[in-house]
C-alpha cells in the first residue's frame, strides 16, 4: 500500500524491542514502512502492542520532519524524539521507534522471532546469497598483494557489488592491525575490522570479518573481505574497476 511517497506492507514476523530488561515493543502485527528518501524500511507497530505508558509528547520535536514525535522514558532515562507516528492517515494508529545502532539512541535490542537483528529491519524484497567459488581472486593496493586465493566465498547482495570473502590462510594477515571498530548488518550480523599497513601508510578499517554471522550467511564465518571501493581486485586475470557505492569505510571511534 502507499500514500504519496510512503509505502508500507504488513509483516507476519513476531517483533520485540528492548531497552535493558524493559520490553518496549512486543508485536505480532508489525508493518514495514518505506519513508520518502530512506533506502531501508522501518517497523511500525499498533499502539496496543507498544508500551504507550513510556511515551510522552515530545518536549522539543524536530521542525524539519513531518509526523508526531514522542519522548521515550525507560529506567529514569528519557530519549528525546525516540518514537513517532508517520504523517499518513492509514498509519495514524501505529508507532515507530529509533534503533540505537542506527540513530545513536533508541531501542537497543531488536528480535524477529528469537533471532536478534541489527541496524534496521530486513527488507523482504532484498536477497543475500552466499556461494562458494573457485574463482582466482587477487587483492592489491598500489601493486602490493594483500591476498591471493582460489577458494573465495562470494556474497551477492541486491544493489551492491559482489563481496569476496577470503580464507585467512590466503590473506597477508601480517599486514593487518585489529581495529576497535565494529558495525552491525541486519543480514550478516556484527563485523570486526582491521586496518592495513602497506607502502608506508595505514588504511583504516579496510578489511572486515564476521566471527558469528547470521545463520543464513554462516559460510562467511571468519573469512576476510576487503572494500572493493578501495582496493584493486583481479578476478580470473581480469582487473575489475572499483565500484562507486554509498558505502564508506567506518571511521575509527574517538
Quick rundown:
This protein has about 250 residues and is an all-beta fold.
Structure notes:
The chain has one helix spanning 100-103, and strands at 2-3, 6-10, 15-19, 22-27, 31-34, 42-46, 55-57, 68-74, 77-85, 94-97, 109-112, 115-117, 128-132, 137-141, 144-149, 153-157, 163-166, 176-185, 189-198, 201-209, 224-226, 232-235, 238-239. It is mostly beta strands. A hairpin with a 2-residue loop joins strand 14 and strand 15 (144-149). The N and C termini lie far apart (43 Å).
Write the SSE topology.
Blueprint: E1 2-3, E2 6-10, E3 15-19, E4 22-27, E5 31-34, E6 42-46, E7 55-57, E8 68-74, E9 77-85, E10 94-97, H1 100-103, E11 109-112, E12 115-117, E13 128-132, E14 137-141, E15 144-149, E16 153-157, E17 163-166, E18 176-185, E19 189-198, E20 201-209, E21 224-226, E22 232-235, E23 238-239
Antiparallel strand pairs: 1-2, 2-5, 3-4, 3-11, 5-6, 6-10, 7-8, 8-9, 9-10, 11-12, 13-16, 14-15, 14-22, 16-17, 17-21, 18-19, 19-20, 20-21, 22-23
Defining key terms:
254 residues; mainly beta; eight-stranded antiparallel β-sheet; 1 helix
